[in-house]
């Protein structure tokens, strides 16, 4: 068995937050809502080109990960390879989203760090 890449990232959020999380990834990152199988729990699949890279699901009321219970999530952030650094910064400013810029000189890379409405860290990587 060999891992060949990341298939998708799943975010579980309470029903009252799921649309805000969806809107964040659509408006800020430019992903689009696409086809999703009819699973038991509501949710969305968010696509980059033709790949559903983020899966959103409404969490169960008893899900301790989203209630800050005994087993909170330990996921810190997800990272995306990206293009269009200037346009992205302008979008963040227009949407009034706080961000941090980190330059990685040895890799000729600029990283932008933001957080989604559910608190998940998002790292956008731009090659210079």
Question: Would you give an account of this structure?
Answer:
The chain has 128 residues and is an alpha/beta fold. It has one domain (9-62, 76-127): 2,3-Dihydroxybiphenyl 1,2-Dioxygenase, domain 1 (Roll), CATH 3.10.180. 21% of the residues lie in helices and 37% in strands. The protein is built from three helices and eight strands. The protein has a four-stranded mixed β-sheet. It is globular and about 45 Å long. The mean pLDDT is 87.
Per-chain topology:
Blueprint: E1 9-13, H1 15-27, E2 32-34, E3 43-48, E4 51-58, H2 64-67, E5 77-82, H3 85-94, E6 100-104, E7 109-115, E8 121-127
Parallel strand pairs: 1-4, 5-8
Antiparallel strand pairs: 2-3, 3-4, 6-7, 7-8
Distance from N terminus to C terminus (CA atoms, Å) equals 34 Å
The class by helix and strand makeup works out as: alpha/beta
The overall strand count is 8
Secondary structure tally, helices: 3
Helix content: 10-25%
> Could you give a short account of the major beta sheet?
4 strands, mixed
**Major β-sheet strand ordering:** 1-4-3-2
Strand content: 35-45%
Low-pLDDT segments: none
Tell me the Rg in angstroms.
16 Å
Task: Please trace the helix and strand order, writing H or E for each element.
Answer: EHEEEHEHEEE
Mean pLDDT: 87
CATH class category name: Alpha Beta
